[in-house]
Amino acid sequence: MANKLGRPVGESNARELLVEAARDLFSELPYEKVSTRKVAERAGVNASLIRYYFSNKWGLFEAMMQETVQPVFEKAIKARQGEDFSSLSEMFRTYYRVMSKSPSFPKLLYRLLSMDGRDGQIGHAYAMIEKGLGLGEKPLMQSMADNGDLKPGIDPTMARLSLMSLMVFPFVAPPKMLELHGITLDEEFIERLAEHNLALLEAGLLRESDPSSCK
Question: Tell me, what DSSP letter sits at residue 150?
Fold first, then answer.
């Protein structure tokens, strides 16, 4: 519940509910078709709370984007610092854990990054990813190659693309394609998929397999 100014009374998870509802709606619909009223209705809270917590729709969008990817970006920073498969694995698992709870979010990023221009929500997505993943720095796979961690003949750029494919495709795959193969992207399946893909990466990319790195 809220008072006349939109301030929540007592303990409330309204903010979390609004972020979750916004994530779903912005993933389903273009930005301009998502109203604060729709978000509030999906969250089951008073629309005045959007103004209280986020000021406006754009503030809600920014908060939703940042808070969804922040756990992954924190691990990505550590992975760049560690420059090894163990730190990469930690980031990889975190990504899958986050996306298992927000499986529609990668579709939102895919849609935004497929659009022309760098303004508004498109520019925000670009800036967030460039900063969070350190795209102006030496790529992690190149660092691993320089450290002698990759198998001879492995192209770091190709390895990087393989990593991106494994992370993105399951969530943007057409639902009918997944259905034809009897795949349901629930949390249990996504957790298994993360470990399977890590095993593939380890066996295919690393100079020496270390089973303990995937535990």
Answer: B
Please report whether residue 111 resides in a domain: yes
What average pLDDT does the segment 26-39 reach?
A: 94
CA angle 141, 144, 149 (to 5 degrees): 130
In a domain, 15, yes or no: no
Average pLDDT over residues 54-71: 94
Residue ranges making up the domain that contains 85: 66-214
Is there a domain that residue 169 lies in? yes
> Regarding predicted confidence, which is higher, 2 or 9?
9
The SS3 of residue 74 is: helix
Candidates 128, 102, 110; CA nearest to 25 is 102
Q: Got the DSSP string for 1-35?
A: -B-TTSPBPSS--HHHHHHHHHHHHHHHS-GGG--
* DSSP per-residue letters across 79-115: HHHH-SHHHHHHHHHHHHHHHHH-TTHHHHHHHHHTS
Is 8 inside any structural domain? no
Q: What is the pTM of this model?
A: 0.80
Q: What is the CATH number of the domain that holds 183?
A: 1.10.357.10
pLDDT (tens digit per residue) in 145-204: 998 999 999 999 999 999 999 999 999 999 999 999 999 999 999 999 999 999 999 999
